[in-house]
Amino acid sequence: MASKKSWRDISSATRLAQGYAGRRGKEGDSSEAGFSQTLAQLRIGMRQWFSMSNHEVKIVLLAKFDGTTILLEKWEEEIPVRPGATTTRHSLQHQGPVLRQTITITRDTTTDPISYHVTSGALVLSFRLLFLRDRGPGEGDLAFGVQELEEYAEDVWAQV
Question: Where are the beta strands (DSSP E) in 7-112?
């Protein structure tokens, strides 16, 4: 279970472009891009994360805030293996990102206190895609339940 505090981190990480001479790379952040960029721009950036990392990034989470709703999209890299091929780097064909989960969070200001409504239940992030290895004893997927997503929404609206 993630703590409420974990949603408040507004730091970023830079991923240098592999195989793209002269290009700086991508820098993910959780502070303002989801408000200042369009959803189409965020999706372009998501695709760049996969390609510019030479497909080492396996999961991207987009958060789009438009003032009335928060849209969360979980994108994963789809890597099918050719039938009969051994699993090597050369036998894998990158098919591009696949939208695995969409969650919409809305705010209801007609209630006292203000309430938040989450569609689609918990946000689950695959341990294997995040850490690029199988999970060990006591390890598992990261799950953010409805209550944690409501707390996240409350924090987002508190910043507006």
Answer: 12-15, 26-29, 59-65, 69-77, 97-108
* Residues whose CB falls within 8 Å of the CB of residue 43, separated by 6 or more in sequence, listed in order: 62
Rounded mean pLDDT of 43-65?
92
| Total number of residues shown for the chain | 160
How many Cβ atoms sit within 10 Å of the Cβ of residue 34? Answer: 19
Helix (H, G, I), strand (E, B) or coil at 73: strand
CA distance 30 to 18: 23
- Average pLDDT of span 14-34: 57
Nearest of 46, 100, 34, 27 to residue 70 by alpha carbon: 34
Cα Rg of the chain, angstroms:
17
pLDDT digits (tens, 9 = 90+) for 95-116: 789 999 999 999 999 999 999 9
Return the pLDDT at 96: 82
Of 32, 97, 98, 96, whose CA–CA distance to 64 is shortest?
32
Domain boundaries, the chain: 23-158
